[in-house]
């Protein structure tokens, strides 16, 4: 009996620690997703003048998913420590619910990746066209060219459409120069901004999509394991209760409350045997 009880306790501990480890793993994964989403969101913020607003949906959704996963992981840890089948089942159901959100974020990122090319090209051309007319547009295009070390859309010659030229010397923004201008001459940067910016945005979308899909399918396995472990805890608790009941029965411990009329003292008082000597009987002497 002692050996069986020891095996049961060991199996319960294994189940508990397995759920605990799974929850901690998801907490680490959630932290990684959160950090990646914040980094990509900050990257998009830096170039927000060249990115449509709906491109911010996938990173923002991924940030929300990361925070939700952290809360779910904490919920799973508490459920494991308390050996609560209800909490662990809810933990598995929440993982499946977040799986749906992650698939939505991944699909959105994949769809938007195909829109990057036309969007970036048009946004850069619009900013270049307004470079002279609106003072506020200088900072975005200058920041873009200075940060990515690029000039124009496909190359420095794109500025010929927007800045005046005397036919011999072409005018460029100072941020197009590979080095500080000397004697009024500027050596323009070799690469255009379109290829570099579109690559950054595309890679950010790919990271969101692939990372989300990978974690989502791992979550499905985690949810299945949670349901299986909850079932194992339920069986172990049932077995433990059954063995306790059998032990009580073997020791003769009654599990129902004893009614007063069936106590030995009151039975002897209610049904006194005249031939049986009781302490209250008169002395024969």
Mean of pLDDT: 76
Number of helices: 7
At the third CATH level, what is the topology name of the largest domain? Cd81 Antigen, Extracellular Domain, Chain: A
Largest sheet: none
Overview of the molecule:
With 285 residues, the chain is an all-alpha fold. The protein is built from seven helices and no strands. The protein has helices spanning 2-46, 57-82, 85-113, 116-129, 138-148, 193-250, 264-270. α1 (2-46) packs antiparallel against α2 (57-82) and α2 runs antiparallel to α3 (85-113).
Summarize the structure.
This protein is an all-alpha fold and 285 residues long. It has helices spanning 2-46, 57-82, 85-113, 116-129, 138-148, 193-250, 264-270. The chain has two domains: 1-47 and 54-82; 113-180 and 187-251, Tetraspanin (Cd81 Antigen, Extracellular Domain, Chain: A), CATH 1.10.1450.
Which secondary structure elements does this structure contain, and how are they paired or packed?
Layout: H1 2-46, H2 57-82, H3 85-113, H4 116-129, H5 138-148, H6 193-250, H7 264-270
Helix pairs in contact: 1-2, 1-6, 2-3, 3-6, 4-6
Key terms:
about 280 residues, mainly alpha, Cd81 Antigen, Extracellular Domain, Chain: A, 2 domains, rod-shaped, transmembrane helix, Tetraspanin, glycoprotein, Tetraspanin_animals, Tetraspanin_EC2_sf
